[in-house]
């Protein structure tokens, strides 16, 4: 992996937009990128932004919560950002399916009150990485550079100092575990143990034998019930035929009439009563206007004459109205003359004198209202006629049935019919009971079959679970064996790389001849000449610094990953000779890309002379605006010597 660029927008001290082009030269002869600035200029912010771009919340630690992470993001927005937003974007080159692709990861966030809205963009060769679900982008990035391994490649002077001052080598122990994947192995072993425990808890008692026995009994009961239903159904058919035959004999001997004589008498009385009521109703209709329905044409002419007579009877009222109108209007309105009133009276007289004159003893409106009832009366007459005919028919039938009645007839047939009906009813009752029993037995069989299948599935699952637990046990044993082998191989490689690195950095070349890492505790033991153990107190402060750097270097080499190295202020506690050794033997060789963050006082002219042949890019960073904002100056490598001379003169 090679870092291509880092773009910061309103991140920390980097107000506005700033871009670091980080790709070293293509031939690999100049792997070093220098970022030089005084304390507080933004070097540590540079390292933090790389971590944040790659890991997001994980950059702050595995146990950091979302609220704490959002508070951190709020603090990292530049104070002068008007829109209260910031972003970091890291582009890097990495292998994918045999091709060398350019990836860009961009994290942006904006303040929304006390909370933060964050977004993640992940691109490959300028296009979104759509072959990986967006929710898995963070996992994919961490697979490229695991957070635990990154501490071996991205570190600052404080980490070096912590390792150097740690007499118990706790920091290195954690780094070695992370390198070897022991933490992952421990987690995997724990997950396997948890799986086995939960698998055991899920197992229950499954009495297959008992369920099978209950199912056989239920099936046997169902077969018996169905056989009895078949037998009862056949018996019911025989009794039904016997009952039908007895019914026919009974009816042929007049049994139906004999049984219903009283009923027939009561029914005849009711019919005769209804017949009398309906006859009286018909007579009442005939005495009214109903007969007019028989002469519709006569009724029409008579209605017209009544209408004319109604007009003739209104003549006095019209004449009185005209006289009153003449008396009221004629004196006040000159438009109404006597001639007008004469013509009005003539018109009224002509209307009254037209046609024959009829004298009515009743009011014409009453007569017309009666005529309006004729159609309803016609419907009532028709209905009553139909009802009378039906009642007369019923009366005739009932009289004939009573006339044929013979006391004592069909008594024997009646007894046979009662016996057949009784036996048929008993059989039907028993048949219904057996149907209910069969339904219950069938439901029980179905339930037991479901329970049996469920139990069989559970037993099968138990067998599979037992197989999986056995696999989990064997996997745990394999993990233990793998851990032993990988630890042995990696620790041997780690020891070799450490001796090479440390021997090239310290002035006392024969100080440490070997390093032993305990495979159980991962504690370090330095051995000198003749196998004598060297305690940390025997090393000088500078040697302890170089010990930490050498161990980090050896861990990085042992990891087998081709990752860039980012080192923040590694020279502050080293003397001149050790600085020279570090610049000459470590920095150019530690990785294919080394980004070195150092202060302007650390990079003295003599050290610059050593490192400049390996430098492909150099950035000068400095704070402006009272330390509130950082500016970046890009220098070409050939400008380094002049810049260093000017820096030395200034100091």
UniProtKB/TrEMBL annotation:
| Database matches in InterPro entries | DNA_S_DndD (IPR017599), P-loop_NTPase (IPR027417), Rad50/SbcC_AAA (IPR038729)
Q: Origin organism of this chain? A: Pontivivens nitratireducens
Against PANTHER family, the record matches this protein to:
ABC TRANSPORTER ABCH.3
Which is an annotated GO molecular function term of this record?
ATP hydrolysis activity
Q: What is this protein called?
A: DNA sulfur modification protein DndD
Which is a GO BP term held by this UniProt record? Answer: double-strand break repair
Superkingdom assignment: Bacteria
- Which part of the chain is the Rad50/SbcC-type AAA domain? 5-276
What are the alphabetically sorted keywords of the record? Coiled coil, Plasmid
Q: Report the coiled-coil segments.
A: 208-281, 374-401, 431-492
Where would you find the membrane-spanning parts of this chain? Answer: none
